[in-house]
Hints:
- The chain is of the alpha+beta class.
- The chain is built from four helices and five strands; from the N terminus they run E-H-H-E-E-E-H-E-H.
Amino acid sequence: MPVIIRPATRDDLPTLLRFEQGIISAERPYDALLKPDPISYYNIGEMIDAPDAIVMVAEIDGELVASGYAKKRRSRHYTSPDWHAFLGFMFVAPDHRGKGLNRLIVEALTGWARDQGLTEIRLTVYPGNDPALRAYEKQGFQPYLTEMRLGLEDD
Length: 155
């Protein structure tokens, strides 16, 4: 089955909204701070239209099976480079996992980032999400910064 990697269109939104809920469901075990459903992480339609972002999808036999986005972001004022591509919305349909689709999406997003003149890509992964960590490390990503939190309970 040939895989087509292409930019998403607004016609893809119904499937992409389902993908987003799949991401949220998968990440709930790692994040006790997520509000109860229904929630949304992204304005996917806005990202599809944005000049500083791209949403890519993988299609097999006319069916969308994976997604991801890259967005141009300003880096912290005290770090280099000044701008980087931030990846998110990484999803592969359960029946298509293990086929290298995430890698193909990341390659397409990397190409977009290069075309934008960006020299670095960043993304976030929940601690404990070992399959995601391994997948990104296999593609050359390295841990950079760990964000920590302390909840303050009402007394």
